[in-house]
Amino acid sequence: MGAGKKAKNIAKTTKGKAKETTGKATGNESLEMKGRAEQVAGDAKQTAQKAKDTLKH
User: Fold this and answer.
1) How far apart are CA 57 and CA 45, in angstroms?
2) Does the model's pTM come out above 0.90?
3) Is residue 39 within 8 Å of residue 31, measured between CB atoms?
């Protein structure tokens, strides 16, 4: 996996965790849900990229 793509995916997941935590702390369910969605998207992209790398080798 390219280092740049991996960093973007990890950053997206981390950003999602931060949003979810902030949403929980403030009682903002919308922010919490957006954070969860962002985490899922980051994890999915990372998994897809790993699958691509596996098929290349």
Assistant:
1) 19
2) no
3) no
pLDDT level of residue 1 (50, 70, 90 thresholds): low
Q: Do 20 and 39 meet the contact criterion of CB atoms below 8 Å apart?
A: yes
d(CA 45, CA 7): 11
Torsion of CA 30, 34, 36, 42, to 10 degrees: 180
Distance of alpha carbon 28 from alpha carbon 49, whole angstroms:
32
**Measured between alpha carbons, how far is 29 from 50 in angstroms, rounded to an integer?**
32
Across the range 16-36, mean pLDDT stands at 97
